[in-house]
Amino acid sequence: MAMLLLLLLLSVSAVSADEDAFIGVNIGVALSDMPSPTQVVALLKAQNIRHVRLYDADRGMLLALANTGIRVTVSVPNDQLLGIGQSNATAANWVARNVIAHVPATNITAIAVGSEVLTALPNAAPVLVSALKFIQSALVASNLDGQIKVSTPHSSSIILDSFPPSQAFFNRTWDPVMVPLLKFLQSTGSYLMLNVYPYYDYMQSNGVIPLDYALFRPLPPNKEAVDANTLLHYTNVFDAIVDAAYFAMTYLNFSNVPIVVTESGWPSKGDSSEPDATVENANTYNSNLIRHVLNNTGTPKHPGIAVSTYVYELYNEDMRPGPVSEKNWGLFDANGMPVYTLHLTGAGTVLANDTTNQTFCVAKEGADRKMLQAALDWACGPGKADCSALLQGQECYEPDNVVAHSTYAFNAYFQMMAKAPGTCDFKGVATVTTTDPSHGSCIFPGSTGRNGTFTNSTSLAPSSNSTDASGCSSLHLHGADPFTTSVTIGILLLIMAFA
């Protein structure tokens, strides 16, 4: 059995990494005060969001997205699936009206045919593959099949026994649909669309799945989940589910169909039965998810293979039925205000528009620690920046490491110099950002006081050090953990073109 699984593991190496992973967002419309298409697109552009998925093919949205370059996945709603799956002409008319009428001005790159059909609308399952084929035929006839991929999103619940991933398989009830579906995806160069919700896996596990494992939080090696058949270590639920889908496809003899995660996220609010639907957990999950995807980390089974993911979702949807959590998956409220501030490793180069006209000077990600210390000493000494808040016992002393202290000192100098050009460089170890680096009671100069929070659960280990009168510390760092700073919601969705 173990040898068979090893052979299966090796056989999926055909999955390729042709392009870097991307982060997109889903745009639901169950809002009592839904912004206009123009307002939605303005938010997308301001936050540099370059990939979106619509749950329909709304004409107003598609017109508003024209000439933006934003890559768009349009959808055939479930209530239209039966008609399209039973009639080639109906499918052709749908494509003509909702796709051909809008390209190339609107950059439509995929069509999602239905949503979780096997679990949400099983009576339409017999015509699902026909619907995909009819849609594909209409694209071929219009010479658009090379530009637009056709697929259908699945709930991860169609995967049975998902751990260990090497023993996962699709619900055999659906083999008559999954086998021709995978043949279609393989022959057209498309991908399996999968909705992955570690939140629900965690909630339904009755304590078996640790919260940290669901949230991508670092785990000690002895807490990682190990697949006994492959000896692969899993540090998060997301990777385990994606790899389970890869193995499930392998058992059906399909080894070269990539996966795109069409929905993943975490609710920021819940009722009394959902104690882990919190702002902090939503913040942690989405921040870690985005970093994980954009680093092209891949999965233990396919390291370095892109798993592009659409975050669920852009807006909180107050009109959705069900528990409180159903209404609170959004990154933004209807008025465009962020629900919370996401944390990402590295400040990077800010690409989003700064609507607050606030800029700060922070330590550059990956900067040499000795150079940071020298710049810190200069800023708090000859530079005459006010570093008193860094003194031991003061509000900005913690976290006690050279990256956090130099960030405060660099910004103090930058603000003191009225943000003059060239005053945020420090020999290349500093960069300007619109992300407010304030945290807790430590309010940075230039801040309005609405601040984010340092995520220092994996921050540089504090050291025993002396602090001079300027508040600058001489640190002896343990390890080389990355600098973690808070990045406003849209900025972390910026496709992360770090300069």
UniProtKB/TrEMBL annotation:
The source's superkingdom equals Eukaryota
Task: Name the chemical reaction catalysed here.
Answer: Hydrolysis of (1->3)-beta-D-glucosidic linkages in (1->3)-beta-D-glucans
Q: Give the first-level EC class, as a single word.
A: hydrolase
Q: Could you tell me which residue ranges the X8 domain spans?
A: 359-444
Cellular component, GO, one term: plasma membrane
Gene3D superfamilies assigned? 1.20.58.1040, Glycosidases (3.20.20.80)
Give the UniProt subcellular location, in the record's own words: Cell membrane
Task: Indicate the secretion signal residues.
Answer: 1-17
| PROSITE patterns on file | GLYCOSYL_HYDROL_F17
Report the GO molecular function annotations.
Answer: glucan endo-1,3-beta-D-glucosidase activity
Is Coiled coil tagged as a keyword? no
Q: What is its EC number?
A: 3.2.1.39
- Please indicate if the UniProt record lists Disulfide bond as a keyword: yes
Q: Which InterPro entries match?
A: GH (IPR017853), Glyco_hydro_17 (IPR000490), Glyco_hydro_17_plant (IPR044965), X8 (IPR012946)
What family does the Swiss-Prot or TrEMBL record give for this protein?
Answer: Belongs to the glycosyl hydrolase 17 family.
Name the record gives this protein: glucan endo-1,3-beta-D-glucosidase
Q: Which organism is it from?
A: Turnera subulata
